[in-house]
Predict the 3D structure of the following.
Amino acid sequence: MTTIKDTAEEWEVRATETPFVGNKTSVRTDDVVMPGGSVVRRDYQVHPGSVAVLALDDQGRVLVLKQYRHPVRHKLWEIPAGLLDIPGENPLHAAQRELYEEAHVKAEDWRVLTDVYTTPGGCSEAVRIFLARDLSEAEGERFEVEDEEADMELARVPLRDLVRGVLAGELHNNCLVVGVLALTAAQAGDGLEALRPAEAPWPARPFEV
């Protein structure tokens, strides 16, 4: 049986420059040597990476939030997510922080649901999506949010309703779409206990356990 698996590879870069540096990301321009020997220019966003959390409660509902996203001029239903702000940061710790900050929730059971490159043709962002279960209210005061997060709505929605919304073209956030469909596939396949452990290696963003 043929194994279908992505493989790491890096083509020669003859020249590189960074015409824009932002607060969290930057834009890089590389002159890349193609297989036939020609050199082409590729512009892309350099991204530190992200984590996302599909938090599933004991009633089969997923914790989602609605947030304004200016580039697409939409309020999108999403799952909790955030940047890997610290180089080499353990993605599980980052995911636990995001779940606390955005939803004031903690989870006792964590597994890797899937790893994705969000837009590999134009951005280096890699996202690890976790499945979090055995949820409870976090202790202490709520994290003080600001900017777009200050306007967020929180809800718990049955997984089947999210799948229907994805397939109907009503839900568009990348991590939500990938997360709910991956969870549905896992449930129908080998089961959630067969998912990778929360500390599974992540070659796209190596980290210290």
The chain has two domains: 13-46, 50-197. The mean pLDDT is 94. The CA atoms of residues 101 and 144 lie 8 Å apart. The helical segments are 91-103, 159-167, 174-188.
